[in-house]
Amino acid sequence: MRDHEIFREPFPVDVAPTVERVPAWSHGTGTQRERFVPLASGRGAGTPGWVVYGYTIEDGPEVEIFCSGDNSKMAEAAAVWRQGHLLHFGFEESPAQLNENGRKLLLNAIVYIARFTDDRPILDLKSPQIRGFYRDPRRLALDLVPERLTRFEDAFADGVLPPLDEPDLEARRAWFEQNVDRLRPDGWGKVGLDDDARRLDAPPADAGFFARVLAALDDEETRDAAIALLERSVADGPGPGAGAEAWKAWHDEVGPFCFFSPVGGFRWHVDPLARRRGLPTASLRGAARASRP
């Protein structure tokens, strides 16, 4: 649970009373018990609810994650969250089945979301379960352990990883550290390499991406690579076939309103609300995006 007004206003939610049980995300192992604030009582209380993996949404400026809950995914998964003017309240129980705390939280969430009439979801994300999901290649570092090495190797498109005679964790870790800045999703649920990112020293996820690529536009030897990299790495650019001057003019207009999303195509996007208000998207987060106090 995060420190947020949604737990205080207009109805204070009492987070002191807790119950202890084995969470659903332990998948029946029974090796870990957690404490939960119960939001329902009676028959069926505590049924695992609906969540989304927090890491797939939390980089969006229009997203706020308020809390997790008992679920079959992971402890950090988001149970109550906002995207633009939309609210996800993922607890399984109906409002009639919620206890006083649960009803207060639901009402607080409705009151809060009603303030965001101008904000809208920006990212169109594909499910991790379907082909073409844009994974964040940098998260593959989590699979660089002996028991998940095969999963790490299976994530890459054919011909990307150098062949090995036998599994070698240290060799894979060294290769990953050397190439992580030019990894990118290939659009088919696999991870490939971007040689232009390495050549221009401009990893798309790096905060200095635009400065380096735009500078490369001034050099005839790197201009074509820079334009190709921009076309791949920007979701809302001036369009295919745009030249160096068009890209510079586009960035002059919308640069402060851009943000990077690993799972939104591993690309840069323009924040429409920030652009309309003329405020940098980096400073337009949380309650600052509301249409009224």
Low-confidence stretches: none
Straight-line N-to-C gap: 23 Å
Described by the principal axes of the CA atoms, the overall outline is flat
Largest sheet: number of strands, sense, barrel closure:
3 strands, antiparallel
Series of secondary-structure elements, N-terminal to C-terminal: EEEEEHHHEEHHHHEEH
What would you report as the Rg, rounded to the nearest angstrom? 22 Å
The class by helix and strand makeup works out as: alpha+beta
Enumerate how many helices there are, as a single number: 8
Summed over residues and divided by their number, the pLDDT gives a mean of 89
Helix fraction by DSSP (H/I, runs of at least 4) = 10-25%
* Beta-strand percent range: 5-15%
- State the strand order across the main sheet: 3-4-5
The total count of strands amounts to 9
Notes on the structure:
The protein is an alpha+beta fold. The protein has two domains: 5-113, no CATH class; 137-286, no CATH class. It contains eight helices and nine strands. The chain has helices at residues 100-113, 149-154, 169-179, 195-199, 209-216, 223-233, 244-254, 272-277, and strands at 19-21, 34-36, 63-67, 80-83, 86-89, 183-185, 191-193, 258-261, 267-270. A three-stranded antiparallel beta sheet has the order 3-4-5, with helices on one face. It has a two-stranded antiparallel ribbon with strand order 1-2. Strands 6-7 form a two-stranded antiparallel ribbon. The longest helix has 14 residues, at 100-113. The protein is flat and about 70 Å long. The two termini are 23 Å apart. The model has no long low-confidence stretch (mean pLDDT 89).
